[in-house]
Amino acid sequence: NRRSFSSMAVALFGLPLTTLAQESSQGSSAPQLPYREVPREAEDSKKVLIFISLTCPVCAAYHEQIAKWALSLPKGWSAEFVPVVEAHRDTVIAARAFYAAKALNATYLPAFLSYAYSAIQDRGMPVSDGKTWSFIASSSHLQGFDAAWKNVNPATVQAAFNKLIRYRIDATPSIAIGGRYVITPDSTNGDQELFFKLANGMVSKAMTG
């Protein structure tokens, strides 16, 4: 049920297959670790990046706990939701709506996402329909959404795409920790409680590593 797009990432982003499958190819010679390490991103050394897709059922299922966990990070750390942007119109529209909501009230963003998951997944409202976003904005009591939508800088959406590439994200939800480590629910075989224990452990590892 997870939103997976590894083969699409290869095709769209021009990434070599070994980049996305390196860990599995090494599995025969080394123990499989419950995380993936990427080249360090110094600017994100005290950040948690939470990659999501509003059409991903597992993102919706994990959302409430992820939002709560993000508030428990150590002092000096911050969490940032990042919408997955692909070469599909729907993902660009969703990302633009995301950044419009963030510009209006960043602290209210988790609540906005809850309404968005419900509208898109439970009600079946189409991502590409402007009425969907008007409904979500109204439901979440965001004033000025239409104006904020028009003011979203395309470079902001491009930056989300660039992060997807840098962290080699191939499924959602994925959490990049400390600019270095990436974990997914697959890391703990779908065990949500264990997943957040792993997330805490990876924050500690990033702080001391």
Textual characterization of the structure:
It contains nine helices and seven strands. α3 packs antiparallel against α5. It has a five-stranded mixed sheet, with helices on both faces. The relative contact order is 0.19. It has helices at residues 6-13, 17-25, 57-70, 89-104, 109-122, 130-139, 145-150, 154-166, 192-208; strands spanning 3-4, 36-37, 47-52, 78-83, 171-172, 174-177, 181-183. α3 (57-70) links the parallel β3 and β4 (78-83). Helix content is 51%, strand content 12%. The chain is of the alpha+beta class and 209 residues long.
Task: Describe the secondary-structure layout.
Blueprint: E1 3-4, H1 6-13, H2 17-25, E2 36-37, E3 47-52, H3 57-70, E4 78-83, H4 89-104, H5 109-122, H6 130-139, H7 145-150, H8 154-166, E5 171-172, E6 174-177, E7 181-183, H9 192-208
Parallel strand pairs: 3-4
Antiparallel strand pairs: 1-5, 2-7, 3-6, 6-7
User: What gap, in angstroms, lies between the N and C termini?
Assistant: 33 Å
The strand order across the widest sheet is 2-7-6-3-4
Query: Which strand-content bin applies to the residues?
Result: 5-15%
The average pLDDT is 89
Main sheet specs: 5 strands, mixed
Give the low-pLDDT segments: 6-28
Helix and strand element order:
EHHEEHEHHHHHEEEH
The number of distinct helices, counting runs of at least 4 residues, comes to: 9
Helical residue percent band: 40-55%
Secondary-structure-derived class:
alpha+beta
Q: Radius of gyration, Cα only, in angstroms?
A: 17 Å
Q: Count the beta strands.
A: 7
From the spread of the alpha carbons, the general shape counts as: globular
Oligomer: single chain
